[in-house]
Write a structure and sequence with these properties.
The chain is an alpha+beta fold. 30% of the residues lie in helices and 24% in strands. The protein has an eight-stranded mixed β-sheet with strand order 4-3-5-6-7-8-9-10, sandwiched between helices. It binds 6-O-phosphono-alpha-D-fructofuranose.
Length: 339
């Protein structure tokens, strides 16, 4: 079907994310409501973090916290605040067994095997946080996995392939606060109406454009990219592509979702696995892009098929419109990339 611009816009009704979740729950007879409670907790955390981000340049939440996270990265104060907010919002949800965050070395076990807890929630509390001091967009990325109480270790429990995600999404703190969510039946988009204090449904069944001449990559690393990536970029430039790169993955991927094109963080000689974390950055965003009709690859492998070996594992990513991803894959094959 021809891409009709914004055929998915929701008109003439006011649906909050809570109402939307309950409507979705009614479509699944026998649903316990446990899952809905998790999404509701995430939307609450998104509102609380949005309030903090919006005031970041006014209150003393700017700058480094003086500690480093498991990645060895300096933690911005808002990283730590956002992490605590999410932990508080999700901690009392009886359906959550495990929480795992980019900011913490190990998962937090809330309920063991027989104590309930059907789900695990993994998140990057504030992706792109180094942009905060200059008021650039940042985001929270989350994914919901099934808990398997028969698996002993918490890390082994959450090291699941992305195709097994139950739900995924992000909250973008930009010129608007936007929540994008998939539960495996398409992508829905909500905007926080601060006057109402609720995320309101604005687009249902978002579809990524099949093609757009825009690429999003940190070109400063280009000399370190494998030949196939460099060739793709050369051909894109020769074909009149635009370049858009904010350096905040949530913002770059959100623009790609709505306007089309290709976001990528390729492998480099200094970072052969790239920089993007697999479990709580690449996988949730790849799930969103695929559910919107796009593609997401790590080299020549579909990102969601890859089995993680560790919690904070990094992988190269390229995701976006099918035409651009196919073009990159052809270039990688031509230049000897191994599947
Ligand atoms: P670079 C932010 O730190 C992040 O993890 C992603 O949000 C973003 O896409 C990437 O790093 C930017 O990395 O090396 O281009 O500054």
């Amino acid at each position: 079907m021809q891409d009709r611009p914004h055929a998915d816009v929701v008109r003439d009704n006011l649906t909050s994310i809570q109402a939307h979740i309950l409507q979705e729950e009614r479509r699944h007879p026998g649903a316990s409501g446990d899952f809905s409670m998790i999404i509701s907790a995430i939307s609450l955390a998104g509102k609380a973090i949005a309030a903090k981000v919006r005031r970041a340049n006014l209150e003393d939440v700017l700058g480094a916290f003086g500690t480093t996270n498991v990645q060895g990265e300096g933690q911005q104060k808002l990283d730590v605040i956002a992490n605590e907010i999410i932990m508080k919002c999700l901690g009392d949800r009886v359906s959550v067994a495990l929480l795992a965050s980019e900011e913490d070395e190990e998962p937090t076990i809330l309920r063991r095997g027989g104590e309930g807890g059907k789900y695990c929630v993994l998140f990057d509390p504030l992706d792109g946080s180094s942009n905060i001091d200059c008021a650039m967009p940042v985001g929270t990325i989350f994914t919901v996995l099934r808990n398997d109480p028969t698996i002993k270790g918490s890390v082994e429990t959450v090291c699941q392939a992305g195709r097994d995600q139950v739900a995924a999404g992000y909250v973008l703190y930009g010129s608007a606060t936007i929540m994008v969510l998939t539960t495996g039946s398409g992508v829905d988009m909500f905007v926080l109406d601060h006057s109402v204090g609720s995320f309101l449904l604005v687009r249902r069944g978002v579809r990524i454009p099949k093609s757009a001449k825009t690429y999003s990559v940190n070109e400063a690393n280009a000399l370190q990219f494998p030949a196939g990536y460099r060739r793709f970029l050369d051909e894109a430039k020769a074909s009149g592509y635009s370049s858009r790169y904010i350096g905040s993955m949530v913002a770059d991927v959100h623009r790609t979702l709505l306007a089309g094109g290709l976001f990528m963080y390729p492998p480099t000689t200094s970072k052969p696995d790239g920089k993007i974390r697999m479990l709580y950055e690449a996988n949730p965003l790849a799930f969103i892009i695929e559910q919107a009709g796009g593609m997401a690859y790590s080299g020549l492998k579909r990102t969601l098929d890859l089995k993680p070996a560790e919690l904070h594992q990094r992988i190269p990513v390229a995701m976006g419109s099918p035409e651009q991803v196919d073009g990159l894959l052809a270039s990688l094959r031509e230049h000897g990339e191994q599947a």
